[in-house]
Structures are given as structure tokens and as C-alpha cells.
UniProtKB/TrEMBL annotation:
SMART domains: GATase_5 (SM01211). This is Phosphoribosylformylglycinamidine synthase subunit PurQ. GO terms for cellular component: cytoplasm. GO terms for molecular function: ATP binding; glutaminase activity; phosphoribosylformylglycinamidine synthase activity. The keyword Hydrolase applies. Part of the phosphoribosylformylglycinamidine synthase complex involved in the purines biosynthetic pathway. Catalyzes the ATP-dependent conversion of formylglycinamide ribonucleotide (FGAR) and glutamine to yield formylglycinamidine ribonucleotide (FGAM) and glutamate. The FGAM synthase complex is composed of three subunits. PurQ produces an ammonia molecule by converting glutamine to glutamate. PurL transfers the ammonia molecule to FGAR to form FGAM in an ATP-dependent manner. It catalyses: N(2)-formyl-N(1)-(5-phospho-beta-D-ribosyl)glycinamide + L-glutamine + ATP + H2O = 2-formamido-N(1)-(5-O-phospho-beta-D-ribosyl)acetamidine + L-glutamate + ADP + phosphate + H(+); L-glutamine + H2O = L-glutamate + NH4(+).
């Protein structure tokens, strides 16, 4: 039976169709989820895609966090359901307190769009098992509020527990503390990152490489092995 992976669309989401395509290329079935619906349609995992939910009013992800669909996602994530937050999705996960820390405006105060080199720091999460720890990958990045911040105690905890999932290499594009590009929760089922793996799944688009596809094959492998 094919794994079903939900992709949530909020007002202002941009990358829901791209994410659905990436899931399909990995061999799973993408399921469209609407922000007003609490019903997750019996999906096995959920992706919160990139964009500017609710126009980033108040703060990026701050309003989307209270959408009806998030009530169910928060409950299911705490029970072990895999959830991936990409860019705006990462911001929503921090606002929902499924991941620690928060996101602020880029330190240079400009929107940035570029191919970004990353290092995989944790290859044991539900979304990263098809990578190797220490592997270097190139993933497109596009954001205005991508600066990851947390207090020193939280940062030390993330480092000590191996919960920094990805780190920027060569260039820190937004001033994120400790070059953090993505993190995971303690259980490893919830992962958030600012770069966009869904834009690096086919040789003809994005970086011209498929460095992002293992995100989606990882979750498929994880669900099949459950």
C-alpha cells in the first residue's frame, strides 16, 4: 500500500504543488490538505510547505499556527506522526512550539534567493535516513525571515542532543545562530528547515541536482519499515 503524505495549503502558500510533485516522484501519494479542515484524511505524514501564509502578518507563521488543521497536526505530531516544515513551514512549527527557537528577519534585511550548500548533521530522523551524516548537499534557499534564533541554553541543548539536522556551509545566508539551517525534535519525527528540498528533486529544475529527493524517499522508507 502506498504511503499517503499530506501537504497543507494555507492562504499565501507557494510551494504546495512543488511539494506534491516531489512526493510523487519519491513514490508516495500526495494528499492535498486545506488549512480550514481538521480532518487529515488518514495521511501517514504531513508537510508544511513554503510560502507566506497569511502574508506573514504579525510574524511569519504566527497566524497559520492557529489554523484548524494545525490543531490536529500538533496533536498527531506529539503522538509520533512525521511532520516536515519547509521554510514557512519551519516558521509555523516554531510558532506551534513543535520545534524550539524562533525565526527573525534576515540580518541583512533583504530577501535572499540562491543555491545553498548544507551539511547533513543528523541522518537518523524520519526525514533524513537516506542521507549520510556529514554529507554535503546543495538545496535552493529563498526567504526574508530565515534567521534562526534561540537562547544559549536551547542552542547548547540542540547541539548536545544531536538535534541540529542541517547546517549552512561556506556562507550563512541569513545570520542564523551557529549556522543552523534545520533542526529536529527529540523524537526525530518533526523536522524543520529553511531551504527548499522540493526544488531539488529533478535534474532539469532548481540546482540541476536531486539533492532534495532523499527527504521524500526517507519518509517513504521510514513509513514502509514501521
Amino acid at each position: 500500500m502506498t504511503a499517503r503524505i499530506g501537504v497543507v495549503t494555507f492562504p499565501g502558500s507557494l510551494d504546495d504543488r512543488d511539494t506534491q510533485r516531489a512526493i510523487r516522484l519519491a513514490g508516495a501519494e500526495p494528499v492535498a490538505l486545506w488549512h480550514k479542515d481538521k480532518d487529515l484524511k488518514q495521511v501517514d505524514a504531513v508537510v508544511l510547505c513554503g510560502g507566506f501564509s497569511y502574508g506573514d502578518y504579525l510574524r511569519a507563521g504566527a497566524i497559520a499556527r492557529f489554523s484548524p488543521v494545525m490543531e490536529t497536526i500538533i496533536e498527531q505530531a506529539k503522538s509520533g506522526m512525521p511532520v516536515l516544515g519547509i521554510c514557512n513551514g519551519f516558521q509555523i512549527l516554531t510558532e506551534a512550539h513543535l520545534l524550539p527557537g524562533g525565526m527573525l528577519g534576515n540580518d541583512h534585511l533583504h530577501f535572499i534567493c540562491r543555491d545553498q550548500k548544507l551539511r547533513v548533521e543528523n541522518a537518523n530522523t524520519a526525514w533524513t535516513v537516506d542521507y549520510d551524516a556529514g554529507q554535503e548537499i546543495n538545496i535552493p534557499l529563498k526567504n526574508m525571515d530565515g534567521r534562526y534564533v534561540a537562547d544559549e541554553r536551547t542552542l547548547d541543548m540542540l547541539e548536545a542532543e544531536g538535534r541540529v539536522a542541517f547546517r549552512y556551509l561556506d556562507f550563512n545566508p541569513n545570520g542564523s545562530l551557529r549556522d543552523i539551517a534545520g533542526i529536529t525534535n527529540e523524537a526525530g519525527n518533526v523536522v524543520g528547515l529553511m531551504p527548499h528540498p522540493e526544488h531539488a528533486v529533478e535534474p532539469l529544475i532548481g540546482t540541476g541536482r536531486t539533492d532534495g529527493l532523499p527527504f521524500f524517499t526517507s519518509i517513504l522508507k521510514k513509513l514502509v519499515n514501521v
